[in-house]
Amino acid sequence: MQDVKDITLIGAGPTGLFGAFYAGMRGASCRLIDNLDQVGGQLTALYPEKYIFDVAGFPKVLAKDLVKGMAEQALQFKAPLHLGEKVLGLRRESDNGRPRFIVVTDRDEYPSLTVIIAGGIGAFTPRKLPLKDVDRWYGRGVFDRVLDPQSFAGKRVLLVGGGDSAFDWAVNLQGVAHWILMIHRRDGFRAHHATVAQVQALCAAGKMELRTFWEVKAIHGGDWVEGVTIHNSKTKQEEHVAVDAVIPQLGFLSSLGAIAEWGLDIDKGDIKVASTMETNIPGIFAAGDITTYPGKLKLIATGVAEASIAVNHAVHFINPAAKVAPGHSSNMALFGQSED
Ligand SMILES: Cc1cc2nc3c(=O)[nH]c(=O)nc-3n(C[C@H](O)[C@H](O)[C@H](O)COP(=O)(O)OP(=O)(O)OC[C@H]3O[C@@H](n4cnc5c(N)ncnc54)[C@H](O)[C@@H]3O)c2cc1C
Question: What domains lie within the chain, and their CATH numbers?
Answer without folding.
Answer: 5-124+252-335 (3.50.50.60), 128-248 (3.50.50.60)
